[in-house]
Structures are given as structure tokens and as C-alpha cells.
Amino acid sequence: MTKKENILIVGAGLCGSLLALRLGQRGYNITVYEKRPDLRKVDISAGRSINLAFSDRGIKAMKLVGLEEKVKPLCIPMNGRMLHDVEGNTVLAPYSGREHEYINSISRGDLNALLLDEAEALPNVTIYFNHKSTEVDFENCIAHFYQYETKSEVSKKADVIFGTDGAGSSLRKSYYLGKKFLFSFSQDYLTHGYKELSILPAQNGGYKAFKNALHIWGRGDFMLIALPNLDGSFTVTLFLSYAEGEYNFNNLTTNEKVLKFFTTYFKDALELMPNLIDDFFENPTSPLGTVKCSPWHYKGKTLLLGDSAHAIVPFYGQGMNASFEDVVEFDKYLDDSKDWETIFKSFEKSRKIDTDAIADLAIDNFHEMKGHVNNAIFREKRNLEMA
Ligand code: FAD
């Protein structure tokens, strides 16, 4: 393992761009291939979820690459959960009694752009966009791509290939389809999907709801959440079953049905969302799933990191944070000048326990957020008022 080796990274999302930056800082020659156009130049949505809860794990990763100060202006602290009951009453449930303990809301696009800028500023990091990996020959360390602009196929050989191409990873598919080693893989979908909606800024540019909180409208079988953005808007996400219950994504097919659903269950949110109908019918409904697999690596040649190795449902707000933590933990192994296979094995051995645990906790928290949190806290509030 020498720094002259050519490292190829597939996917320049949150994990891939952080990995490129860190390995670049360590002096490796890095080439990154990303399927989508450059989000800094083309007006595309940054992918799933416009904003994200960015926790201490994520901040530690920023410290590692020296970006702690640059990321701060992108963050909105959320000190607690603002719970909304069906009558429109609210209770703020702080995450902690200590003022300095909070999570942040951050724009996926802004964070990804910062990481791309910093990685690309290094002379030994090159990023190509519009390259979709179609297959990875992990035995010979060759990645095959479709280049959208020239409509042609290109193949690139490297010494090591990292797959950071998200939940639908092409490297992971190649492991699975290649059948060259015992590869275990599971993908479990929730019965619920999600749809993004929005609360636009107030006329004076301020926030229409309390800014420094993660807003939750838990309704037992479904829920709405909202996270603040820097421009005064909130990104709202509806989590709802595809097919079960009185209201579901399959039967909310007309303006009247959607308005009735929101008037019945989310009246106070509806008042802040005059553009609900357009958002509802224009924005996609997307599935939520958990991916577990092993091994993440093939010999010392390829390694999966981030969602490609362990995609989780978003109810702990930890998918990106855990993907960033992958890079932090992986980086520790690079201090020992061992061969790649030993590094990959040791990393996966210690890391998989944690990523399996957060995957299971995230599913538990789905049930907690949509039902129990609201019930328990409003019950406590009523008891206090009656005392
Ligand atoms: P991705 O962000 O998916 O990036 C993968 C990249 O690879 C993309 O740029 C993609 O274009 C590219 N790519 C894909 N296929 C190919 C290919 N074949 N060839 C080349 N490039 C390819 N996490 C949190 O920590 N906090 C939250 O609050 C949170 N909220 C979420 C809300 C929702 C609704 C969802 C769905 C997820 C949420 N997550 C959250 C999880 C978070 O989005 C992921 O864990 C995180 O994006 C993983 O980063 P990644 O770089 O591994 O994958």
C-alpha cells in the first residue's frame, strides 16, 4: 500500500465526497466518478431529503477534515422536538437539559457542495460527473461506466475501488451478481413511504413556525415532520403507508382527499402550507428501506462505505452521520501501514456491529416518533396542568 496507488471512488454524494477529501489530504491519488451532473453548477435537487439532521458524529467528521468552522454557517441548531397534537397544541421537548446539546438542520446540497469544493481543491483529487457505474469487475479492479454526455461506455482500472454510490450501489450489485464469494445481502422495505412538502418563508423572510426545533406531528400510523432551512422555509416530510389505513399514498388521489386528510390530522401545519396541493402532486413518493450486507470488501481491492454498505430508515436522523463516521473510523486504520485487505477486514469487523445496531434502532424510533412520543408528552403536559 503506497500513496502512489490510484484510488477510484464511485459516487460523490455525502460519503464519497468526504472520503475523497480525507484520502486526498492523506496524499493518495483519487479519481471520483459521479452519476449525476455537478450539483454546484446544475440546478438539481441534491437527492433524497433536502435537509438533514446533522449530529455530533457528523461534526466529528468535519473536524477530521478541518471543516468545522466552514460548516457552522450552514447549520441551524434544533434544541428539541416541537410536538404538535391534532388540536394544534404544541409542546417543546428538549433533547437535553444542557443548552449546548442540540442537533442541527443542514441542507444536503450545501453540505455536499462544500465537501466537493474542498476535495476538488486538492491537486491529487479529480471528480468526473455524469458517469454512471454500470458494473464493477472487483476481481480485476475495473469499473465500467456509462457517460451520459458522450453516450458512450468507459472503463477505468484502479488499484483500489471504493463504492460510495448509495443504497442502490452498483459495486454491491456486482458482488451479488458476480457469485464469486459468499455474499450475504438483505433489503427490507417499510410499508410506509415518504413525500417531501414545504412551508415557505413568511412574507418578511422570517420563519412561520418556531425555528430551532424539529417539528413532529405524530398520528399513530403516520406522521409529518419539518426541519428548518436557512432561507426561512421548512422542509416537511410526510411518512405514510402506501396501501394500509383509511388514508394512504395509494388512495390520496384528489385535491379534496388530500385537503380532508390534512384538515383532519394536520390542521395547524396546513395553515402554513398554502402550496400543499402542488407539492403533494408534483413531488415523488419514495420508499424507505434497510440494507444490510457482508462482506463489505473483496480481498484488498474493493470496499463499500456509507449507504451502499448499510442504508437505514431515517427515523434516528443518523444515516448520513453514520456514513460520515465510516470515514472517521476507516481513517484510523490508515495510520498503520498494513495492506488494504487487513485494513478492510479490521474496519468492517469493528464497524458492522455499530451500523447493524443503528439500523435496528432507526426502525424502533419510527414507531416511537409516530405514536409514543406525542402521546406520552401530551399526557404529561395534561397531568401537570391538572395538578
Ligand atoms: P448517497 O447520499 O445516496 O450518495 C450516493 C451518491 O452516489 C449520489 O451522489 C449518487 O448520485 C451517486 N450514485 C448512485 N449510483 C451511482 C452509480 N451507479 N454510479 C455513480 N454514482 C452513483 N441521514 C441523517 O444523518 N440525518 C437525517 O436527518 C436524514 N434524513 C433522511 C431523510 C430521508 C427521507 C432519507 C431517505 C434519508 C435520510 N438520511 C438522513 C440518510 C442519508 O440521506 C443517507 O444516509 C446518506 O445520504 C448516505 O450518504 P451516501 O453518500 O452513502 O449515499
TrEMBL record:
Catalytic activity annotated for this protein?
L-kynurenine + NADPH + O2 + H(+) = 3-hydroxy-L-kynurenine + NADP(+) + H2O
Superkingdom of the source species: Bacteria
Q: Which UniProt keywords apply?
A: FAD, Flavoprotein, Monooxygenase, NADP, Oxidoreductase, Pyridine nucleotide biosynthesis
Q: Which cofactor does it need?
A: FAD
Q: State which pathway it belongs to.
A: Cofactor biosynthesis; NAD(+) biosynthesis; quinolinate from L-kynurenine: step 1/3
Please state the Enzyme Commission number of this protein. 1.14.13.9
Q: In its keyword annotation, does this UniProt entry include NADP?
A: yes
| Domain FAD-binding intervals | 6-174, 299-329
Q: Name one GO molecular function term.
A: monooxygenase activity
Q: What does this protein do?
A: Catalyzes the hydroxylation of L-kynurenine (L-Kyn) to form 3-hydroxy-L-kynurenine (L-3OHKyn). Required for synthesis of quinolinic acid.
Report the family membership.
Answer: Belongs to the aromatic-ring hydroxylase family. KMO subfamily.
Query: By what name is this protein known?
Result: Kynurenine 3-monooxygenase
- Which gene is transcribed and translated to give this protein? kmo
Which residues of the full-length protein are shown here? Answer: 1 to 387 of 469
